[in-house]
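quick one before i forget lol
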Amino acid sequence: MRTQVAIIGAGPSGLLLGQLLHKAGIDAVILERQTGDYVLGRIRAGVLEQVTIDLLDEAGVGQRMHQEGLVHGGFDMLFKGERHRIDMNKLTGGKNVMVYGQTEVTRDLMDARATAGLTTIYEAANVAVHDFDSAKPRVTYEKDGKQHEITCDFIAGCDGFHGVCRASAPRSAIKEFEKVYPFGWLGVLSDTPPVHEELIYVNSPRGFALCSQRSETRSRYYLQVPLTDKVEQWSDQAFWDELKLRLDPEARAKLVTGPSIEKSIAPLRSFVTEPLRFGRMFLAGDAGHIVPPTGAKGLNLAATDVKYLSNAIIEFYQDKSESGIDSYSERCLKRIWRAERFSWWFTSLMHNFPENGAIGQKLQEAELDYIIHSEAGARSVAENYVGLPLDFGH
């Protein structure tokens, strides 16, 4: 099989790249090792920056998002038992975020791809990338017991942290930066109305908590837990009891509890690989970087990688120019490191680090106190949270 771009991975970044290229008349095949149902079953983040909202509109898949997504102009920060609102809309000149689950984004992109009759090969086993340092890259895979080969002009590695693309880059050409945090997030999804119309980020002596949502009838809650904890140790009742202990009295009274429909523990890490380009293979999304979920940046960063990459590939075909693909890695990394910094900072501010002792908690509270009483401090949080513009600092 021959195509212009072979995209490895049918998560949101691979599907979005395929859609943007399709809009520009560029042929792409997507390979995915899991089934479509498995991909849709992954419960992930759900806060979209304005840049991502605009990108989904540009890709022609924003209709359901605008109908069902919840527009948020701010969020609450709870510390020392009291809640304070960060008015993002006011502090950023009218910018908001949209609460719309990653599962829904993936479904919209899958539907658009199916409607357009574009090729996605699910359950592709033993995917391997070859000759990406030449002008004729190849991808091989197995399906239904048969070996297949795709020849292409470019390979897009949208296959996540454990994917084959980054693993295939020459070790001598790659640098990896990583910080693993000493705790995880225990997350519960429940068909209960959210405790508050906006998100609540909680800094408490018992540990971090987050009250989030997917819709007006579905809530997502998180608790900071030790990495040694197992999901089986946490009954639904134990989860709700602990969450209540970390909330303020008003939220505690309003909290509607119910059976969990999904429960999992996610480790937190900051990770970046440099560069993101190896000849004619590019890394995008989780294949190139991971952020702790505190700043809601993972999906949004993946989307902006894809925006830069699609622009670069379109420019290559339409203008016969390689300047976009030559600058892809540098442009992405500039934005990635800013988001990594914000996610690390927000994680460090809101979580309990027992090794920092009582003084650690006091210093966090002092910084939070500064943020809510300083317009400049609050604006810095708001500006980063809604997402920096695509061309920021370029």
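fyi The chain has a mean pLDDT of 95.
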